[in-house]
Amino acid sequence: MTDIQERTPDDQREPPVQGLQTNVLTSADEDTAAAPQPQQTDSVGLPSVSGRYSWRRPPGPAPTGALPQERFRREALCLDVDLRYPQMTASGTSYATVSQRYHWIASLTAAGANHWTGSVWYRDGSTSLFPYTAVDIVATPSSFPAQRQVKVTFSGGGQTPFTRTYGWHSATYHPIEFEYDSTADAHAVTAIGTCDHPNRPASMACESLSIEQVFRRAGFRVSRSDADSSVVPLSGAGSNARWSDSEMHDAMQTYWSRFANAPQWAFWTFWAALHEQGTSLGGIMFDDIGPNHRQGTAIFTEAFIKPPVGDAAPDAWVRRMRFWTAVHEMGHAFNLAHAWQKSLGTSWIPLVDEPESRSFMNYPYNVNGGQSAFFADFDYRFSDTELLFMRHAPARFVQMGNADWFDDHALEAPDPDAAAAASAFELVVRANREHAVFEFLEPVTLEVKLTNRGTEPTLVPSTVLDPQGLIAIVKRHGKPARQWHSYARHCRSRQAKVLGPGESSYESLPVYAGLNGWDLSQPGVYDVQVAVEIDGALVTSRPLRLRVRTPRSREEEDIAQEFFSDEVGRTLVFGGTAVMETANETLRETVDRLPDSRAARHASAALANPLAGAHKMLVIPDNQQRLAGVAKVGGSLSERPARVDDAVQMLDGLTDTATAETMGHIAYRRRVESATRSLAESGATEPAAEIERSLHDVLAERGVLPSVLDAVSARAEAYRSGSTDPE
Amino acid sequence: MAVVHVELQEGWTGEQVEMWVNGSRRYSGRPSTRLQIGYADAVVVNVSTGLVRLEVWMPEVSIEASRSMPIGNEHWIGVSRLNGTVLIVDQAAPFGYA
Asked: Could you read off the pLDDT of A241-254 as tens digits, one per residue?
């Protein structure tokens, strides 16, 4: 992504506008102004200041009283008050860590020369860190980029006002890179003459307009990977020579030189003759499958586009419609909906439909008066609400490969600087089996592994892989992505540990259930991706694709009704309960009716653990009023004794490789050793020793690290010698 | 004879839909609109020229709609679900999606 941002190709500049003498400064002009040059002005002589500005905390310790992470804080400011289609808006994004990121947007009113004031109307992320309600912005224009700056005073929200000065970054809001590939039988149109067809606005400036210019005017720093363009062989479309979505997706992965399973400000545009749907489909943003949507669009040049009978300039009419189609499909890659669909789905802010808008995202033939009415008033632009979204919405909603199509829930791409800092680490999420296929009802337990790939020992938080601290995204195919949330959140003092070069840290991830419920339970294909934060930088895993099988019997379907409950989820995650009898009843039924299932092994472990030791239970008499205080109503603590024999019998049934596989080695060992500890404390040291020895044998059979086997042997020996505390 | 293309367009989210043309059931399914093209599903029907009656029924939500239209040649009918109702439009040229 850094490579894209730094590219400044020669075609960044707008060509001269034919028949128009005004001196219009475009974002592209500004963006290439690397060297000092005379003061640039817009058409009415005012200095142009719109664009992206940045700030980062100078090197050194965090400010007094601030969290340590604050030393990493950096901010971007987008000022949008002049140049093409100004939205009179400022927006900002502030990062310190993933959990301390926020985004705000304010509407602006001019308060003087290069001076604007406005109210903050949108917040996203850690909004408690940004309570301000108003901004006062003063810009300092200059011919010299190093001297351009914006001073923003934040106020309101009961806070003491403070002022921050942002330095110039670029005259655009985001970078974007296109790659155009085509088939030999396609007729791509990437530029038109705006006056080639007589049906146009009377005030239309006559010019040669390219797709890149359209997006520059929308506020993007456009580049093209032309050197890597390919002619895609027709054989990719199969014997019918028409392209299906999956064939295009395959072609994208093969021929797009920038393809990656990751968010990036880049996408692939493919020109072909026809889609398999036939001549009715002029184009499609086909990439709405897999973990990274909106990376590929296609235009079908032999589709329905035919000029009206008797049209005055039929060739120009066709070229214009193909051009419109191309920009329209590319607009979908920016997560723009059709003009008449704005109010549908999970829009980033409440939107109203724009069925009559003269935007690339509207169908020309669907407005009142039809296509001639549309093009008589069409200025080759996106609507204001679309420009507001593209320029000022949180980047993850807009960036390709980030938020799913029509969905605004996804991991935000890491900041390039932070990503570089985090590149010394590799994070892997995996299933503890050869193929990531799980039985229906089987609680999906994964493992995460963090490896130091650098050459230096590095300090990491001791809880860096703690499930409650990492970010886990679960995405079932065809459904919106959801963030998994652990049931528990512990408050711990921060401690660090050293991860040497090549060393790894491991943790179990009980992703099957959490505060969202059973996110990963229904039969189907899922992608799971995790991320952890190290020193303010995000380390992200590649997605793990897994499958949950369909039920094998009516018994499984019956039990699922009770099994996928909040109580059972909590009982499994916390390793058993002595008090939630409904959950225990479901687990007993699972063991009885499905004794050979993976779910039964999890159930047995959860049932055995509370039996292995004595449990304190709060008993409140039934005949008293609720909410009157435990002591007032005669409540008391009683101890339920251990049921050693029952526990040992259940645990004996779990010392096999199938249980180790379904639970994962980390959770398996943890569960068994929790139970043996309770058994030993109950006086049953010899059974505890025997179970530890079986645990050792199972883990040895599965090739677990020698250091782990040694530790298990040591516990077995300690119990054998009568110790109740092997630690 | 004439060919009628009945195309399910906007607003379909997986509910059961049944369509009858001139009293014969010609479509039964759970269409889902792909929002990026405004298209869900289609059925092609051969009918006699003249007045054609299309009936649309959504049994799970008790929504029904019908419309009669003269058909002289190849014809295209668009069916959308909008604001709790079913909207039927027709034209003598193919619909375009993008």
From this structure: 899 999 999 999 99
CA distance A660 to A655: 8
| b/e code A84-104 from CB counts within 10 Å (16+ = b) | bbbbbbbbbbbbbbbebbbbb
Q: What CATH number should be reported for the domain whose range is A421-548?
A: 2.60.40.2970
Cβ-Cβ contacts under 8 Å between A and B: the total is 48
Q: How many Å apart are CA A719 and CA A723, to the nearest integer? A: 5
Contact A405/B35, CB-based, under 8 Å?
Answer: yes
Question: What distance in Å separates the CA atoms of residue A594 and residue A442, rounded to the nearest whole number?
Answer: 11
Q: Phi/psi class of residue A698: alpha, beta or left (left: φ > 0; alpha: ψ in -120 to 50)?
A: alpha
- Residue A284 is nearest to which of B36, B95, B96, comparing CB atoms? B36
CATH topology (fold) of A34-170: Lipocalin (2.40.128)
Q: What is the pLDDT, as a whole number, of residue A37?
A: 34
Give dist(CA A588, CA A573) in Å, integer: 16
Question: Which residue is associated with the tokens 């214009």?
Answer: A320
A243, A280, A300: which to substitute to probe chain B, counting the most B Cβ within 10 Å?
A280
User: Is residue B98 in a domain?
Assistant: no
CATH 3.40.390: which residues of chain A? 177-398
Residue A220 zone, left/alpha/beta (φ > 0; ψ -120 to 50; rest)? beta
With b meaning 16 or more CB within 10 Å and e meaning fewer, what string describes A661-699? bbbbbbbbbebbbbbbbbbbbbebbebbbbbbbbbbebb
pTM for the full model?
0.61
Q: What is the rounded distance in angstroms from the CA atom of residue A166 to the CA atom of residue A274?
A: 49
Residue in B35, B97, B98 nearest the CB of A406? B35
Question: Of 1.10.10, 1.10.8, 3.90.1640, 1.25.40, which CATH number belongs to A554-720?
Answer: 1.25.40
Residue A461 CB coordination number (10 Å)? 17
Q: In CATH, what number does A177-398 get? A: 3.40.390
How high is the ipTM of this complex? 0.86
